[in-house]
Design goal:
Chains B, D: Keywords: Transferase. Chains B, D: One of its GO terms (molecular function) is CoA-transferase activity. Chains B, D: InterPro entries: 3-oxoacid_CoA-transf_B, CoA_trans_fam_I, NagB/RpiA_transferase-like. The complex is a heterotetramer, with two copies of chain A and two copies of chain B. Chain A is an alpha/beta fold. Helices cover 20% and strands 26% of the residues of chain A. Chain A has six helices and twelve strands. Chain A has a seven-stranded parallel sheet. The longest helix of chain A has 12 residues. Chain A is globular. Chain A starts with 8 loop residues before the first helix and ends with a strand. By secondary structure, chain B is an alpha/beta fold. Helices cover 15% and strands 30% of the residues of chain B. Chain B has a ten-stranded mixed sheet. In chain B, strands 7-6-9 form a three-stranded mixed sheet, with no helix packed on it. The chains are: A alpha/beta, B alpha/beta. Chains in contact: A-B, A-C, A-D, B-C, C-D.
Chain lengths: 220, 225, 220, 225
């Protein structure tokens, strides 16, 4: 029977390469797979394109990636309050693609759902429309937003069964559920791995078809 | 005549929210409105990171960092609340399902243009977050802000000079001096701080205002009579 | 406190008018709000635009609407095996807009999510592309598909609390969850109404913000 | 030489499905493949109405009409299965998450064009359902069908005359006579029914075929040696 459990964060990030696009779940610390943050650092990869709602705070989080200068570009909605990122940004050593939060998650969803893009009312008449195709439907103008996919999606779940079905905890679900549909390799850091049948089939948020690797977070 | 305190402004907004309405309180000052909602209001609060029926912040030591609001502060879930992912959360916002979004602002124009995400300072990284989705999607967009900048410059303007969040979206502005509705024929003053005249308000407002009937009186505690 | 419970199907369909667009949940019989089917008939409304995956079988279902000739147009993915509909269709008294199933649900989602449309790879090079705008992104051609909304969305849930939070039963979830986001008035027929707090906040599929009316199905 | 029975054809397809793969079996004959899946295959079946890990049909009298497949027939859920709404279900399909979709067909062209939803008969209402989404989205599109129509006309053709479902998507065809891969240089015969020659197969195939190495032999029970 299918079993996607791997032993640790190191195994979860196996294969990651320089220049990869990487989605990291989370809104603030909720939903951020912290073990993965460190494991990616340990691989020594560089020049990543990071797709994430935030750019870290000054804590033990994505700030480590900016401190280590392994991110070439970040696609992000709210990189404020991120000290290490801000330094890189001011120094011009990291590229920022600023995307409204709802547009960010919808672009990721489009990537995972095989759509070529979508027409958004968000950003019309603002700098967020710059350089994007405008499409008028009826008497209303929209912006064509394009899908996002990644080489790796790393998210934080609550429970996963060995098949790879995942639930989340409270507001830690945020971008994780959508990112889990849009990575070529999807790895989920969870609080606990359970047996198939232990999760309520009505309450599984990410069905196992989307998940390639699961590992249990180490106690801190 | 002393401008409303932050608490009083928050109370004034809270008292105006529609009973049993679905409301998103933007990060910053708007979040503070929750503290002044009468329990009998039945208002159901949404936070864009994926929660409906947000409850008060937990007691010190009881924080759950998987249960936070859009300002990344610990909250609680009220009975009958729910969790969902960001795509459904923003579908609620962009799809017009929220009755009211209360947002902070740097500037609002007489046409309801909203500038609340950037002052154009290129020194620090910009951040847009979900405010722009709210501004486009909620049925009513209310702004709450100080009437002027710290330097005394009007924030209600003919035309925003800061980068826009969205055009023609704001319908009501709550400031520490007044409540103004943005209507067909301009800026209509619905309520005025006790002791303040329309003429005095006009002096700190960079676009013509007019009274909507006899403006109601805002008391120092934020109640309106 | 908010309470959206109404007494029966008749109250759930109150206000429906001639010419309205109506979404009906369900894939086959699963998810079809059967009480609503009859209650709409009882109102005597006509000229409805029906948005539904199917057009009824020969059973006690949407076939009744075609027998009563109250549908002017159906937007549907699979109206086969629908005897009464087929008769109307052959007689030319009902208009059919045939939409691939995934495109149908995605158009409804776009309607509920406030998007202006989406770029679909489905139907490119087929009759399903006829009359639709083509948009090329990179080297790939897509079809611009437009959102669907309705005056009323009627779906079948399993449990609902009095606030209007809804869960579904097994594969009866199908189009219901998405249709519940795209109606100006959304009414849900459920097996049972429960008190707030009885539904797991992690397992609520349709949060109450989308729901205007809830009623418990009468025992048959 | 007797063409494979429906059961044998279904068994032949079942034996080729990738171990632990995610598979959608289209309505009609493909659904029947499930009955021949070895339990150790670990194949996980998807049905587009919103279920992953479809199990066998329940015993008579145990049917739950809220638990059906895309053919609207009662099924069961295997341990570790899940339910979800149609938008997520079609995201799985269109987004390339399924390893294989097995579909019936009226015609398949040498370029992998698929015609499986309409014979152009205008007398009865058309139906497209979810077959088109599968045809566009799954990583591999396999067709299973009788090699010819009841009247003996080839179904594998130079160019489909029936309305297309999708262009250039089919990669493998299982018929009651053969297994053919659609590759760069045309129709490659991977396996042939015992006793059938390439030349005889060519006679009932409306597009040039060629052998891929030495084609394997299909036995009457659908096993391939």
């Amino acid at each position: 029977m299918r079993n996607v459990v791997v032993k640790d964060a190191g195994a979860a990030v196996e294969g990651i390469q320089d220049g990869n696009a990487v989605m990291m779940g989370g809104f603030g610390g909720a939903g951020l797979p912290l073990g993965v943050v460190r494991a990616v650092l340990d691989t020594g990869v560089r020049n990543l394109t990071l797709i994430s709602n935030n750019a870290g705070s000054t804590e033990d989080d994505l700030s480590l990636w900016f401190e280590a200068k392994i991110v070439r570009k970040i696609v992000c909605s709210y990189p404020r309050a991120a000290k290490q990122f801000a330094e890189q940004y001011r120094a011009g050593t990291v590229e920022l693609e600023l995307v409204p939060q709802g547009t960010l998650v919808e672009r990721i969803r489009a990537g995972g759902a095989g759509l070529g893009g979508f027409l958004s009312p968000v950003g019309v008449g603002t700098v967020f429309a710059d350089g994007k195709q405008k499409i008028v439907v009826g008497d209303r103008e929209f912006i064509l937003e394009l899908p996002l996919r990644a080489d790796y999606s790393f998210v934080k779940g609550h429970l996963a069964d060995t098949l790879g079905n995942v639930t989340y905890n409270k507001t830690a679900r945020n971008h994780c559920a959508v990112m889990a549909t849009a990575g070529r390799t999807v790895a989920v850091e969870v609080d606990r791995v359970v047996e198939p049948g232990e999760l309520d089939p009505e309450a599984i948020v990410t069905p196992c078809i989307f998940v390639d690797r699961v590992f249990a977070r180490s106690p801190r | 005549m002393i401008p409303l305190s932050r608490d009083a402004l928050a109370r004034m907004v809270a008292l105006h929210l529609p009973s049993e309405g679905f409301v998103n309180l933007g990060i910053g000052a708007p979040t503070h409105v929750a503290d002044f909602l009468p329990t009998e209001s039945g208002v159901i609060l949404h936070s864009e990171n994926g929660i409906l029926n947000v409850g008060p912040k937990p007691a010190v030591g009881q924080e759950d960092w998987d249960l936070i609001n859009a300002g990344k502060m610990p909250i609680s879930l009220r009975t009958g609340g729910s969790y969902f992912d960001s795509s459904l959360s923003f579908a609620m916002m962009r799809g017009g399902h929220l009755d009211v979004a209360v947002l902070g602002a740097f500037q609002v124009s007489k046409d309801g243009d909203l500038a609340n995400w950037s002052t154009g300072d290129n020194g620090s990284p910009p951040g847009i977050g979900g405010a722009i989705d709210l501004a486009v999607g909620a049925k009513s967009i209310w702004v709450m802000m100080d009437h002027t900048t710290k330097e005394g410059q009007p924030r209600i303007v003919e035309r925003c000079v800061y980068p826009l969040t969205a055009r023609n979206v704001v319908t009501r502005i709550f400031t520490n001096l007044t409540i103004i509705d943005i209507v067909e024929d301009g800026l209509a003053v619905r309520a005025l701080l006790e002791g303040l005249s329309i003429e005095a308000l006009q002096e700190v407002t960079d676009s013509p205002i007019h009274a909507l009937g006899a403006p109601r009186i805002i008391r120092q505690d934020g109640s309106v009579v």
